[in-house]
Amino acid sequence: MTRPLILLASASPRRSELLRQVGIAHEIRPVAVDETCRPGEAPVDYVVRLAGEKARALWSSLPAAGRLPVLAADTTVALEGEIFGKPGDHAEALAMLSRLSGRTHQVHTAVAMLHASGGAARVSSSDVTMREISPAEMDWYWRTGEPADKAGGYAVQGRAAVFIRHISGSYSGVMGLPLCETWELLGTVPGLMAGGAAA
């Protein structure tokens, strides 16, 4: 097996898949943090804070000697500044999709990296426009099981692609890991990319 270059502080198969897409060997090390939004917290501030907390949680759990760089990310869907988390049930999922139907919303993803020499973060923000979605389509989509663990109640790379009319920004960012910003962060780690990044 290829030795991992970094540790990914996420259980998201989409983020792992995106890292593999660009040849970054990694080990998955999910962490749990409190994802409660603070009163008055803006969507961008929220994802930056959570990505940083995830990275720090994993970093602090590692033995001091030989720690690999840690990468963490957090994604949120926002409409008119309101944060849409993961739907708790059928009714909540349909309420979210009803709000997003026929409108343009924002998807913000923050990426944070920690390593022995320091750390840095980047944010990707994209506009996503959905067509009008009928109640029957929303019900069908919920029954696929796909929306249950997705911010905003949908997955752009899955069946919800049929609802998306336009994306302005980063497709990989909407998926949960903006590859441009992630690659920039990897480049800040001394020696990480020197030997290539083939996984």
Describe the 3D structure:
There is one protein chain. It contains six helices and seven strands; from the N terminus they run βαβαββαββαβαα. With about 200 residues, the protein is α/β, with parallel strands linked by helices. The chain has a single domain, classed as Alpha-Beta Complex (Maf protein). Strands 1, 2, 3, 4, 5, 6 and 7 form a seven-stranded mixed β-sheet that branches. β5 and β6 form a beta hairpin.
CATH class annotation: Alpha Beta
The separation of the N and C termini measures: 9 Å
- The H-and-E topology, N to C, reads as EHEHEEHEEHEHH
Shape, principal axes of CA atoms: elongated
What is Rg?
A: 17 Å
* Count of separate DSSP helical elements: 6
By helix and strand content, what is the structural category?
A: alpha/beta
Please tell me the CATH architecture by its name.
Alpha-Beta Complex
Per DSSP, what share of the residues sits in E-state strands of 2 or more residues?
Answer: 15-25%
**What percentage of residues falls in helices of 4 or more residues?**
25-40%
CATH topology: Maf protein
Number of domains: 1
Average pLDDT, rounded to a whole number, is: 93
Largest sheet geometry: 7 strands, mixed
Total count of strands = 7
* Poorly predicted ranges: none
